[in-house]
Amino acid sequence: MRRIKTIFLTLVLLIVGAFLHYVLPQHDIVRITSTEVIRTDFNGMNRLFYAQADSGATELSTRDLRLINTEMKKTWLFGFIQRDSSKVMVYRNEDTGWIWPPYFKFDSSDLQAQAAAEVSSAANPQWAVMTHYGWRNKYLTIFPNAIGIRPVAGPDVTVIPWFNIVFFIFLIVAFVFLRAAWRQFRERAIDPTMQDVDDRLDRVGHQLNERRGRFRRWLDTWRAKPRK
Amino acid sequence: MALIRLIFFGFIGLTIVYFLVSIYSRSVRREKLEKAWAEEHPESDNVPARDAYVAEGMEQYEKSLRHKLILLVYVVPVALVIGIHIVTTYT
């Protein structure tokens, strides 16, 4: 039983962790190499990993998708430790609109123009911090969604994830509040009621015992008297 | 259309949060009043007086700024949405 509980809890934790890893913003150090637009036909598997059509447009099964091609600095541990090597990375650039995830992004065209303006060569690199959410997966053909591009002087910048810090503090506060509210509710509403029910059950049980006792005594009067 | 949906469901969600927080806050306040009464009148069995004391305290609480601050449950998320939107779109 304990093992099942552990496995279940680990699974829940993994799913929640993966969900947060997908949705929360992350920062990559990139050099933008080019921008492009490709036509995309989604399928049932990867539709989940794309946003909807641009805020002012109609949703169709096929549409153009803005992409930003980059050379990205590799990192360890969710981007906290930088490595010397780099790899290619492709970002999509879509409006998230008023829906999900809640970035309220409507400026993908402007962002695409900015990305095009930041294009640089390996000989004369212009580095930038790319804020994004999402995952790159080659088998599903999914891309992280670019949220913002900020040019920086060199590739060795430290980015403090303020939003994530505030978010996790909020998460802890929300958890503590919910636990306190639940305890208060149990202490003030459930426990007294249970106490009441307990008392009543006790009384009923007692009465029942007494009645049974009387019945027993009456039955016993039918029993043969001990012979003298 | 999506904005209307966001406002609609956001309002429902925040109303649930509002009620949870206000019920909790009221319960904590009532408990505090009961404890204060018990401390001042350790031997008293005067239930009506105690109830009146608690009722008066709760009435004061309903009028207090503290109680009205729970309305921030509606204000903060809206400010946050506007803030995030401005940061992603205009910087």
TrEMBL record, chain A:
Record key words, sorted: Membrane, Transmembrane, Transmembrane helix
Keyword Membrane: yes
InterPro entries given in the database record: Phage_phiNM3_A0EWY4
Highest taxon in the source lineage: Bacteria
Ranges that cross the membrane: 159-178
Entry protein name: DUF1523 family protein
Organism: Arenibacterium halophilum
UniProtKB/TrEMBL annotation, chain B:
Keyword Transmembrane appears in the UniProt entry: yes
Source superkingdom: Bacteria
Residue ranges crossing the lipid bilayer per the database entry: 6-25, 69-88
Key words of the record: Membrane, Transmembrane, Transmembrane helix
Protein name stated in the entry: Cation/multidrug efflux pump
Lineage: Bacteria, Pseudomonadati, Pseudomonadota, Alphaproteobacteria, Rhodobacterales
